[in-house]
């Protein structure tokens, strides 16, 4: 091969390499665009995750508030149960006293009636 042929072959190979380099540059440009698109998507996802985190924090705060309210309600319910039991005891005691008074009065009336039955001089009615 002559020097001229070698130079022609080198030139052809250089042109082919230049074409391949152009293709590689286009592919790199496409990859850069795709990476840019991915970066935007990741940025959007990060914003969404941040929004979700804020919402979760808000929900946790609401849950904490609800737990406190539930605890308060349980304490109030316990107090009401104690008050109901106390009221029941008081009512039972009052009913028992009333029943005892009624029975005592009935017994007293029976004694009076028995006395009247045995002593006819007291009443003539």
Structure description:
By secondary structure, this protein is mainly alpha-helical. It is 93% helix and 0% strand. The longest helix has 116 residues. The chain is rod-shaped. The model has no long low-confidence stretch (mean pLDDT 92).
As residue ranges, the low-confidence spans are: none
Shape field: rod-shaped
Q: Give the termini distance in whole angstroms.
A: 165 Å
Instruction: Compute the number of helices.
Output: 1
Radius of gyration: 52 Å
Beta strand %: under 5%
Instruction: Give the H and E element order.
Output: H
Structural class: mainly alpha
Number of strands: 0
- Overall mean pLDDT stands at 92
Please summarize the sheet with the most strands.
Answer: none
Helical fraction: over 70%
Give me some keywords for this one.
rod-shaped; mainly alpha; single chain; 1 helix; 93% helix; 125 residues
Topology:
Layout: H1 3-118
Summarize the structure in short.
By secondary structure, the protein is mainly α. It is built from 1 helix and no strands.
């Amino acid at each position: 091969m002559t020097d001229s042929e070698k130079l022609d072959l080198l030139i052809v190979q250089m042109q082919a390499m230049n074409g391949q380099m152009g293709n590689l540059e286009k592919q790199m440009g496409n990859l850069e665009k795709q990476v840019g698109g991915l970066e935007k998507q990741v940025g959007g996802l990060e914003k969404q995750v941040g929004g979700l985190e804020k919402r979760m924090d808000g929900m946790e705060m609401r849950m904490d508030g609800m737990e406190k309210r539930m605890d308060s309600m349980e304490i109030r319910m316990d107090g009401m149960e104690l008050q109901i039991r106390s009221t029941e005891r008081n009512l039972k005691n009052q009913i028992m006293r009333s029943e005892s008074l009624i029975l005592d009065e009935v017994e007293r009336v029976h004694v009076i009636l028995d006395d009247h039955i045995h002593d006819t001089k007291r009443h003539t009615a």
